[in-house]
User: Which sequence fits this backbone?
């Protein structure tokens, strides 16, 4: 079977997501959209260095071209950019190049800004109609943002630029190309009329943003997180960023759940907020209740009318005010949302909702209602509101429950083993702010071993389930101890058993396993597109926050149908994403990967992405399960929180996605209530599989650790993974070799892990890969995908054919006919079986004048670790540069050279041991 991936349609789908995900915060005096023919002066150095995505595994996507904002504006044909100002920035950047940093997490969150004097601003104002000022911020894995200038706050240079441009121009639009939110007090302080929050739009971001600026599209994005006045206003602030312990004292009061309850005055821009170029009215048409089942269903219909002077889309949001009852509740909770179609001036559309009242259920973790470990709807009045953000709503109906309803009884699982105090609502007086008290949550004794022992008695029932695949089970039961220990190891990074440059291989990772008919599946990063460390080209997607700000899950699902085809083309079975942790605090470095502070909204978009991927037989790995809400100490810190906060906030998106077909989950690095998640029985078996009915596979994050209850964590503790039913340890350099010395076989011999537990995980893995595209490839029945309309990239011809060389003293890499023109990449693989350190010497012949600068960067599995600086002073002669690697080489590695300028002829690459 052959299928076509149309790159043009892919780009258009992403472009629409960018259009609908941009959030217009301010537009006084109708600065936007710019009229046709407007002369624009574009300020800000990020105009030439558009941030397409954050850093780390969520952003390492090789692209042929990134469309920046000026390019998008020029290609629109609707505005004219000041060429003199463009040249001023281009000349300044020659002396002040963009700093990418070397190594993992090394890129700064902002770049040095060019000084914009009053004189320059005034000069530009004399010959232009309006100004665009672009402010950029990046963020990424392994490093949180900070409450400092250049991260959370603007730098003095940025403030001066804004002041001078604002004073000189009558019309100024500030475009925020930021990974996460930043301090927004500067908007009022500098009296700015127009601010467009555009996030990071992937490789086509500049095109979608230009569509908004020029009026080709009307902004319809809505905030998925609250923008407060100060960092300290967020209730999680005093318990964020510790490397050892973080206590979630705010409990369920995350984001708008807190601010709408008690701190409305501390909000600059509320949840769900976003302007349009037109105006809308939302009016009630119908409200009805269906008591045909034990839990009432709610039916709501509203009429949305475009009352303004332009076209646009509006998002209707439904909120519920619950009775405070014995548990205490937030002032409002999002129950549903829908976006209209494109409405022209004067046109209307009916928007209908139908949902169970159980969507706003509460979890009783103390027995206050007499129903401990149950989801309940407490008796009392439930009021329903409709509007276009959490602070602009009107009442549409209500329902009265005479008795408390138990909607679900779940496992007694993952309770805190340390006592702490949490916020609890005591209700409000006369519809005023909610009054909070501190409620002490008592610690329980360690319990996970006891829970496991209880479930072990019923383990044989797993193999008797009617839904079990008998062929996969038969294979799993036939495996030797050595095979069982091997199959639970994922292999990577850069395993030659799968697509070059990907993150991991799993399943048939040994000759013995492959001989039993187990195919080898492939997975790779990530949330912002396919990461291929071979240098191969992929599509860079808009970041998760932007996608969710569309409030249009159907549009995002359509985008990921294209991503699914791209995965099939690259023989990838699992995309390591989406990232679906909750935006608990605005300084979390990976918020850009995540969707929202609201769990329901997060679950909706997670489910949409999984649906889109599954259309082509591939899927995504939901991550990071769970509570990975900061990067600081992500491997070392323990999160202490209530099971109510877990069940109502942090686990909700996973549960929703699992019940909508998700089949792969990745655990987080850290510890939750005393157990590192990789080895948490309560999390991976009781909650995920017993309560939610999950039938897929669970994998660790890369090089994670796990602990026996009450003990310190270890990387080699795969036996605990098996007890917990975390099926795959990701990753080891070579699965058959047991490089990390894991303890599965030892535990089997000593009977500290049941053989049935290991067979269970082996079955989960085999059953997954046997029903994946990996099996089709093994059987010669794979779907062939051809890509059309994609511009060529230098690495395209060689990236899929990475050659691996055995690393040894004196190894010389063949470099005949290597293309070293500007923008080219040359990659090769290394296979290492020793722990020696090596020196790499690269010899080139330089061509050019004596002041020519020909920098060539070196990447280690996709991460830039060094830049060789060649000059033209030795024109026509050979020159050598070298690097001594500070660490031993992994089993498999891909090194690649990126040639930033033409002017080198590669003569030799040689490796020698360092004595």
Assistant:
């Amino acid at each position: 079977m052959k299928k076509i991936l149309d790159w043009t349609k892919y780009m258009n789908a992403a472009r629409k997501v960018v259009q609908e995900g941009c959030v217009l915060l301010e537009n006084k005096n109708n600065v936007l959209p710019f009229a046709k023919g407007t002369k624009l002066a574009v300020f800000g150095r990020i105009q030439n260095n558009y941030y397409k995505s954050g850093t780390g595994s969520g952003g390492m996507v090789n692209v042929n071209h990134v469309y920046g904002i000026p390019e998008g504006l020029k290609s629109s044909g609707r505005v004219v950019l000041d060429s003199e100002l463009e040249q001023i920035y281009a000349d300044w950047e020659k002396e002040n190049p963009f700093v990418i940093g070397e190594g993992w997490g090394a890129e700064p969150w902002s770049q040095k800004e060019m000084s914009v004097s009053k004189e320059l601003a005034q000069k530009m104002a004399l010959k232009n109609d309006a100004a665009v000022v672009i402010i950029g911020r990046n963020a990424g894995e392994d490093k949180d943002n900070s409450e400092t200038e250049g991260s959370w706050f603007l730098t003095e240079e940025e403030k001066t630029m804004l002041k001078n441009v604002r004073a000189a121009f009558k019309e100024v639009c500030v475009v925020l190309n930021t990974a996460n939110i930043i301090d927004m007090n500067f908007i009022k302080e500098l009296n700015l009329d127009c601010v467009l929050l555009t996030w990071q739009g992937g490789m086509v971001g500049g095109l979608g943003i230009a569509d908004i600026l020029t009026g080709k599209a009307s902004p319809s994005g809505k905030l998925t997180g609250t923008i407060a006045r100060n960092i300290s206003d967020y209730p999680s602030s005093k318990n964020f960023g510790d490397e050892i312990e973080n206590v979630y004292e705010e409990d369920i009061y995350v984001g708008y759940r807190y601010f709408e309850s008690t701190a409305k005055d501390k909000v600059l821009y509320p949840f769900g907020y976003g302007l349009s170029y037109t105006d809308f009215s939302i009016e009630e048409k119908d409200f009805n209740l269906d008591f045909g089942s034990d839990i009432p269903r709610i039916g709501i219909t509203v009429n949305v009318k475009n009352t303004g002077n332009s076209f646009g889309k509006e998002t209707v949001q439904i909120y519920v005010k619950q009775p405070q009852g014995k548990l205490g509740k937030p002032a409002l909770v999002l129950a549903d949302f829908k976006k209209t179609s494109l409405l022209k001036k004067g046109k209307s559309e009916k928007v209908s909702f139908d949902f169970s009242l159980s969507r706003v259920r509460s979890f009783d973790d103390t027995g206050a209602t007499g129903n401990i470990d149950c989801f309940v709807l407490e008796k009392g009045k439930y009021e329903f509101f409709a509007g276009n953000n959490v602070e602009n709503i009107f009442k549409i109906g209500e329902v009265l429950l005479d008795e408390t309803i138990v909607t679900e009884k779940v496992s007694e699982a993952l309770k805190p083993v340390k006592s702490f105090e949490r916020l609890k609502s005591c209700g409000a007086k006369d519809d005023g702010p909610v009054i909070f008290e501190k409620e002490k949550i008592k610690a329980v004794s360690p319990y996970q071993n006891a829970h496991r022992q209880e479930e072990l008695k019923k383990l044989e029932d797993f193999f008797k389930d009617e839904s079990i695949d008998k062929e996969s089970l038969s294979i799993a039961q036939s495996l030797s101890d050595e095979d069982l220990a091997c199959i639970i190891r994922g292999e990577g990074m850069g395993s030659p058993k799968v697509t070059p440059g990907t993150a991991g291989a799993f399943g048939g990772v040994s000759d013995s396993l492959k001989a039993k008919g187990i195919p080898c599946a492939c997975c790779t990063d990530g949330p912002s597109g396919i990461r291929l460390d071979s240098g191969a080209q992929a599509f860079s997607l808009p970041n998760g926050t932007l996608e969710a700000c569309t409030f249009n899950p159907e549009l995002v699902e359509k985008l990921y149908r294209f991503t699914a085809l791209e995965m099939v083309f690259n023989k990838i079975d699992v995309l390591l994403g989406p990232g679906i942790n909750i935006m608990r605090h605005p300084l979390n470095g990976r918020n850009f990967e995540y969707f929202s502070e609201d769990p329901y909204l997060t679950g909706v978009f997670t489910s949409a992405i999984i649906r889109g991927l599954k259309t082509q037989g591939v899927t995504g790995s939901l991550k990071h399960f769970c509570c990975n809400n900061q990067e600081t100490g992500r491997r070392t810190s323990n999160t202490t929180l209530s099971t109510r906060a877990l069940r109502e906030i942090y686990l909700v998106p996973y549960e929703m996605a699992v019940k909508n077909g998700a089949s792969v989950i990745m655990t987080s690095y850290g510890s939750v209530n005393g157990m590192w998640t990789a080895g948490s029985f309560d999390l991976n078996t009781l909650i995920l599989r017993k309560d939610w009915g999950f039938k897929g596979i669970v994998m660790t994050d890369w090089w994670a650790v796990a602990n026996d209850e009450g003990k310190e964590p270890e990387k080699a503790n795969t036996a605990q993974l098996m007890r917990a039913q975390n099926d795959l340890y990701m990753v080891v350099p070579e699965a058959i070799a047991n490089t990390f010395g894991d303890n599965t076989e030892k535990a089997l011999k000593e009977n500290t892990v049941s053989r049935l537990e290991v067979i269970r995980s082996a079955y989960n893995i085999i059953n997954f890969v046997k029903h994946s595209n990996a099996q089709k490839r093994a059987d010669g029945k794979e779907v062939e995908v051809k890509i059309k309309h994609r511009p060529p990239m230098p690495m395209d011809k060689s990236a899929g054919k990475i050659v691996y060389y055995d690393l040894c003293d004196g190894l010389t890499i063949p470099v005949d006919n290597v293309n070293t023109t500007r923008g080219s990449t040359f990659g090769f693989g290394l296979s290492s079986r020793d722990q020696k350190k090596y020196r790499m010497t690269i010899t080139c012949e330089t061509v050019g004048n004596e002041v020519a600068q020909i920098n060539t960067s070196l990447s280690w599995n996709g991460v830039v670790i060094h830049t060789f600086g060649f000059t033209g002073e030795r024109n026509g002669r050979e020159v050598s540069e070298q690097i001594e690697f500070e660490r031993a080489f992994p089993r498999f590695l891909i090194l690649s050279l990126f040639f930033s300028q033409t002017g080198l002829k590669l003569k030799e690459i040689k490796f020698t041991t360092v004595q």
Summary: DSSP finds 24 helices and 43 strands in the chain.
